Amino acid sequence: MFTDSEEALLVQGLVKRVLIELSNTPVGVAAYTVGLDTCVEKLMKLLNVKSNGARILGLHGMGGVGKTTLAKALYNRLVGHFKHRSFISDVRETSAQDNGLASLQNKLMKVLPIREVNAGAIRETVDEKQVLVVLDDVDNINQLNSLIGNREWFYEGSRIIITTRDREVLSKHLVTEFYEVKELDSSESLQLFSYHALRREKPTGTFLDLSKQIVSLTGGLPLALEVFGSFLFDKRRQKEWEDALQKLKQIRPHNLQDVLMISFNGLDEQEKCIFLDIACLFVKMRMTREDAIDILRGCGFNAEIAVSVLTAKSLIKFTEDNILWMHDQVRDMGSQIV
């Protein structure tokens, strides 16, 4: 039997262990990925957690190519090596808001052992602590200057990962490793498309040739393959696929926004209205699924069904903590329509 004090210590130890395990919980990555493991292994060698010096990795590539997915997968592999870590999403969008950059600085300071903030930027070196930081979707050098400054601010062994569409943002005096995230090849594209459209590794029969033609028009962008594949998931007649292929042939070659628009045009009028409300308002408010449905239901919409349809078509998603989320390229399409 334990004494009361011994039992209290055991409970405290258990709680501490649970909190540590929870903090090590990986961030959510796409349900199905192709070619991701190979990229992660290559980048793990570049980052080499056993080596000294602060290493800063810049992941650059066009929108929808999978930079965030790769950054999340890397973070999940690295997180167990670092006591102090932070994954900062949507830097571009947050920085554009009032006091947005300051809020990101505060978010970093809550988890990283920063000693001083000076002149609107984190200026002091980390006090003998290795840190892991991901800055996702950076589009301005000022954001980097304000959030991470230079390598000398971080203790030996720290690792910083930056994702951006603009290679020029990644200055050579700051970034130590550069990696361009490229489109999937034809085989990988077919595999990813097949999963979302057919829920299998490879199309068969008459759908194989149609799938190959569709994939060749998407430009190997994972986002386009996911959204267009999800658009076709509930369509099982060959004629429906042939019609979809003809629509793809009419758009500008490898234009992501045009591919996404085909999926939007396939929605009914109520679903379109809800999609636009979410794109232009709801995602900025970081609301839960339940709150979004309550508001939409209050507006007279069949919200539960519509949200399920938009989720099935990969136009909206929900994070691990049930927060409504939309890829910035999909959101931009909604804004352009409005």
Automatic annotation (TrEMBL):
PANTHER family: DISEASE RESISTANCE PROTEIN (TIR-NBS-LRR CLASS)-RELATED (PTHR11017:SF385), LEUCINE-RICH REPEAT-CONTAINING PROTEIN (PTHR11017)
InterPro entries (alphabetical): AAA+_ATPase (IPR003593), Apaf_helical (IPR042197), Disease_R_plants (IPR044974), NB-ARC (IPR002182), P-loop_NTPase (IPR027417), WH_DNA-bd_sf (IPR036390), WHD_ROQ1-like (IPR058192)
Keywords, ordered alphabetically: Leucine-rich repeat, Repeat
Organism (species): Lithocarpus litseifolius
Protein name per its UniProtKB record: AAA+ ATPase domain-containing protein
Transmembrane stretches, start-end: none
SMART domains in alphabetical order: AAA
One Pfam family, short name: WHD_ROQ1
Domain called AAA+ ATPase: residue spans: 53-188
GO molecular function, one term: ADP binding
Lineage: Eukaryota, Viridiplantae, Streptophyta, Embryophyta, Tracheophyta
Cross-referenced Gene3D superfamilies: Helical domain of apoptotic protease-activating factors, P-loop containing nucleotide triphosphate hydrolases
Record-level GO BP terms: defense response
